[in-house]
User: What shape does this take?
Amino acid sequence: MRGDRSFVYETGDHLEGPGDWRPTESVYGDRSGRPMYLVGDSMAAQLASPLRAAAEAHGYAFKPRTKTKVSFRLPATGTPTERRWRRAVFDQIRADRSRRPLVIATGQHMGDAHEIIRTVEGLRAVGAEVRLVTVSPVPSTDVPPEVAEHGRDHHWRLKHWGSSRAAMREAARTAEPSIPLLDLQPLVARGREGDTYASVVDGVLVFGPGSHLTDTFATRFLADPLEEFTARDVAG
Assistant: This one.
């Protein structure tokens, strides 16, 4: 289970150290294509594999820029490390402004709707198009490791739908112009029985340790929705 996670952990594109702030300059897909950035915390990192596939389908240059426990916000505030990381990612996006970068943002700590809209406005000001993806639901307890092998009928109980989900939905709805948003709730919360949801869907474990989606689940069940969501005509 612990090994079933996005490639960005192995490549170092996802920054895990508390003092790490310098984003990589990695590019996946067509380097000459439209830049597509993935920005946020580990909730963003879990989307890297299906978004890489979407980038390849669209001919985009995929640039994952994620950091553990740090959501992307503007203006760049927080601890010195958080500020440096946010500024460095923003500088990369701004450097691509002539190529109309597409920014996919998510994270547990994106704040309230006003802060999200302010961040989107800051990115739009440097020529970026921004789309939001809600964080995945949070189970009340870790799914037991043995579920992967023996627990097809195991279910998880909801702790909450994600600390920033309501704010992201409000921001997407009230911003001018509105912000395209993909809600992961119906994609992740499957096989409902009362107030619980299936831990294994079509033979695939939904969650690894904690509240993160397994890379296998994200790749199989989120690739098509994310490919459609990142198509050029979604935002008009």
